[in-house]
Amino acid sequence: MSRCSATLSTMTPYSVFLSALYVFSFWFRGLQGHPMETLFVLEGDDLSMVIHGPTPVDQFLWRATIQLKKYTILTYQPGTEPKKYYGKRAEFSKTTFSLQIKNLRLNESGLYEAVVISATQDIVAEYHVTVQERVSPVVLNVSSVSLSPESCKVTVTCSTQSSSLNSTFTCTPRTCSEDGEDPAEVVTSDGSLQIYLSNGLNAVCNHSNKVSWSKATMEIKPLCFEDDDIPYINPQQGNLLIIIPFFLVILILVGILGAIYKQRKKNKREINSPGSDDLSPNGDQSPTVYSMLGPSSIPLEPIPRQTASPEGIYAQVDKHGRA
After folding, report:
1. Is 231 helix (H, G, I), strand (E, B) or coil?
2. pLDDT of 185-197, one tens digit each?
3. Do β-strands 37-42 and 164-171 pair in parallel, antiparallel, or remain unpaired?
4. Distances in Å between the alpha carbon of 223 and those of 142, 157, 178, 204?
5. Which of 4, 68, 127, 266 gives 112 a disulfide partner, CB atoms 3.0 to 4.6 angstroms apart?
């Protein structure tokens, strides 16, 4: 589970009472059917408010209730110039009866109302305005990294000017996940501080309120695994990865040498077999000169027949001896 730690600024009983009073006021006016809106404004921005319903024909005013004190911002009687009590920062439209307050200050949070002054004061617009300052920047750091054969745990710390938050993530070679079902979060007086995981890869620290936010992102997976394709390998797995390929290479070499030996033995047997000189490698009879030359294309002349045998040398010697 994620462990959270935060330095929360304490709220005074007076501020708690004001908050409860505002909530009760909204609930009561909601029962009466008055229009009501909630606005959050960044400190230094302008506040714009309009009335609901038709344009008033009687005397009209904008007022504010701030810290239980009521202030009249301006009054207006149709056909005359409006009387401003809020300084030059208040701008009023005689056409739409809208009001704009420029450069709103942090201490100007409160209840703003548009009222038609007649026999009964009718509220034609009501705004609960909360002015907030911009949230402070966040700093995201790694607190610890714990490696194991199966996974890796990374603890990060997100800090602001007034609070801090810790969260732990578990990473594998494929992805990272949060420890716990929900993101780590703490709510402070100036906003919400949250750490969560994005895309199974990035730790995100977000500091925000209704009008601003500050964010820091850190890629945590490389803190555990430098290469996504190379997971954690213990020594025994490393020995197996070396031995198995070695035996595979030996088996392949033995198979190749055995095939060469068998082929040579077969060739030697064929050479020593009878009639192997007259046979071609394919088992056919070796070609002769006559088979290679083929039948002669030159016509043969018939040999003349002799009527008498020529005298041989022995016959001539025999005749000579007789003589």
Report:
1. coil
2. 888 777 899 999 9
3. unpaired
4. 9, 15, 15, 15
5. 127
Rounded to an integer, the average pLDDT of 225-236 is 51
- Collapsed DSSP state (helix, strand, coil) of residue 70: strand
Q: Which residue has the tokens 């602001």?
A: 160
User: Can you tell me the distance from the alpha carbon of 75 to that of 201, in angstroms, rounded to the nearest whole number?
Assistant: 58
Q: In the chain, how many H helices and how many E strands?
A: 4, 17
pTM of this structure: 0.57
The pLDDT > 70 percentage for the chain reads: 68
pLDDT range class, residue 226, cuts 50, 70, 90: low
Domains by residue range for the chain, with CATH: 13-132 (2.60.40.10), 139-223 (no CATH)
Taking the C-alpha atoms of residue 303 and residue 319, their distance in angstroms, rounded to an integer, is: 30
Structure tokens at 88: 């030059």
Task: Give the burial string for 233-265 (b: 16+ CB within 10 Å, else e).
Answer: eeeeeeeeeeeeeeeeeeeeeeeeeeeeeeeee
* Three-state SS letters, 141-178: EEEEEEECCCCEEEEEEEECCCCEEEEEEEECCCCEEE
Tokens read off for 22: 């505002």
Distance CA 77, CA 271 (A): 130
User: Which residues share a beta bridge with 176?
Assistant: 171
